[in-house]
Design brief:
Elements lengths: L1 H6 L7 H6 L14 E2 L5 E2 L6 H12 L16 E5 L17 E6 L4 E5 L2 H9 L3 E3 L12 E4 L5 H17 L2 H18 L1
Antiparallel strand pairs: 1-2, 3-4, 4-5, 5-7, 6-7
Helix pairs in contact: 3-5
């Protein structure tokens, strides 16, 4: 997944990437991790080695159009992953707050992100995620989920896919590509 992002400019990534994070997700092996459910919804166990989460964060923070954050993950207890305003979509349902589409708590390793509803559904069905507690109160978008931290290389790849899905759906270029495709289909029909 990351190779796709590095090889292609983010605007050029096609819908096949989008589908990978939906019905194409593999079933997550093992039991779901335990979580503490409340305003600060966090994963309590089954985090895996910290190196996978650190690699995921370092790579995602290097993607195009991601706002810079502190250079050292050791100085932070939470990493907010935001799009630059110039490419952020005007759809509030794609963001936790402002242009933040994902966040990672480092003290109790937990990934929180906003996914499109279909993708969030499949991530939950395939046991990669659970709905965020604050959804039920309307305090975060409906697609906000806790994605379980990666325990191995295979799970790291799935986490890249889910992050990319969140990133792509929160950006303007994802919507512009869909509108352009729709316009082309209309022109062909006439």
């Amino acid at each position: 997944m990351l190779d796709t992002i590095r090889r292609n400019n983010a605007e050029e990534v096609g819908r096949t990437t989008w589908r990978l994070a939906s019905e194409g997700l593999p079933m997550r092996k093992g039991r779901r991790p335990k979580t503490i459910i409340g305003p600060l919804h966090i994963q309590c166990n089954d985090h895996g080695e910290r190196k996978y989460l650190n690699q995921l964060l370092n790579d995602v923070l290097a993607w195009p159009y991601i706002e810079p954050t502190s250079k050292s993950l050791n100085d932070l207890d939470r990493v907010s992953i935001r799009l630059q305003e110039s490419v952020a979509a005007n759809d509030f349902s794609a963001f936790i707050h402002d242009t933040e589409f994902a966040r990672v708590h480092l003290e109790a390793p937990t990934i929180v992100m906003v996914l499109p509803l279909v993708c969030a559904h499949w991530a939950m069905v395939k046991r990669w995620a659970e709905p965020h507690y604050l959804q039920s109160f309307g305090l975060v978008p409906a697609g906000t989920v806790i994605v379980y931290t990666p325990r191995n290389r295979e799970e790291l790849e799935v986490c890249y896919s889910l992050f990319f899905e969140s990133y792509y759906s929160a950006s303007k270029f994802a919507r512009e590509v869909a509108v352009q495709a729709s316009r082309m289909e209309q022109q062909i029909a006439y």
